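Hi team,

Below is the intake form for Molybdopterin oxidoreductase from Anaerobacillus arseniciselenatis. Please confirm the fields before the structure is written into the shared record.

FORM ID: S-0412
PROTEIN: Molybdopterin oxidoreductase
ORGANISM: Anaerobacillus arseniciselenatis
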Amino acid sequence: MEVKGLKRLYFFIIGAFSLVGLWAIYYRLTEGLKMTALTSNVSWGLWVVFYIFFIGLSAGSFLLSTMVYVFNMKQYEKIGKVALLSAFFSLVAGLMFIFIDLGHPERFWHALVYRQPTSILSWEIHFYLIYMLIIVAELWFLLREDISRLVIKAKGFKKFVFKLVSIGYSIPDNSEKLERDRKQTHKWMKILGIIGIPTAIGVHAGTGSLFGVIVAKHMWNSGLTPILFLVSALVSGAALMLLLYALLVPKEKQDNTMLKSLGGLLILFIAVDLLIVAAKYLVGLYNYVPDERQVLLNMMFGERWYIFWVGQIMLGAIIPILLLSIKKGSSTLKALAGLSTILGIFCVRWNLVVPAYLESPMPGLETAFVHDRLLFEYTPNLFEWITSLGLISIVILLFSLALNSLPIMETKEGKEDNGETADGVQAI
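The structure came back. Fields below:
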């Protein structure tokens, strides 16, 4: 099957799953949380896991982009735009998941109007808004020159869309003005990146703080929790960039030096993440606080031991480190390392959220009242998985359309990185 045929098949499949996602959102909004396997004692489940997973992907991707646009690390320049695009759509995914998890999602705007200065959640929501605006502004500055060229080339509806996105910007008619605009772009990217660094840290460390301040859950109640969230975000962001670059760029056009450097960065982040996890878990096991110790023991040696040992440790750390340590490893191996890490980080997020709910805070409470909605047990049901698959498909579809329509992988001359012309609106 030719490339165009494969692309159409890809968009057809993703589009079909996206329709399922839209149906699931409608069903959830009309039927409520009774469609889930959540109980009165397990109030956060799969959707909250995906929420912190995607927020972490977003923060990690954005912080990697700042290495290019703030710290001028030119070796990562080829992933700068795609890192920002990934940060935006990962944020959208995370917010979609927490939106459908809310008991009254129609009230989401209350937090923006009825502010509580002492509430971490209130600050967090404002961080999300500022963070999203920063990403959009950075993408506009980076792409405005290329999009203005596409306005000239495109016809019909595409021309209208590109003209709308360009917000009236047009390419200067002489090289001197063009160079001035490029310097202005560089200046604004640095300013926005500098503002964005503490904002991105606030976004995900703030999410970790929502967990860290909950005294009733000893598993979460630690100053290390926000740090663990942030470092795990860097791990997932580096892994996502490694995966996307290895998959989207043909092998003959790949920058092997950058891939190797990105792989080394990922190993470093994984090592730091493991150090923090070891410190948190070993202290929790040693201090004999019943709630925390029992949660950790159940997580590591209980019925779902495999989520920790196979998912978090094997997929999230050992396998990627081994794959990236192969000196002459191909880009395929690096892509597998990135994918393995991302799956492992999902298991990290699961272990951060769910196990803390499965231990009764008081001996005998689990048998005092017997009802399906009062259990200290949780396994996501089919509806939750279908909804999750649908939401992820919607975001992948939007990301793919953006990647296929915007000059994300092109140079400012409207050419791809290898020097070949890109006449259409083709990203790669």
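SUMMARY LINE: The CA atoms of residues 216 and 372 lie 23 Å apart.

Thanks, M.
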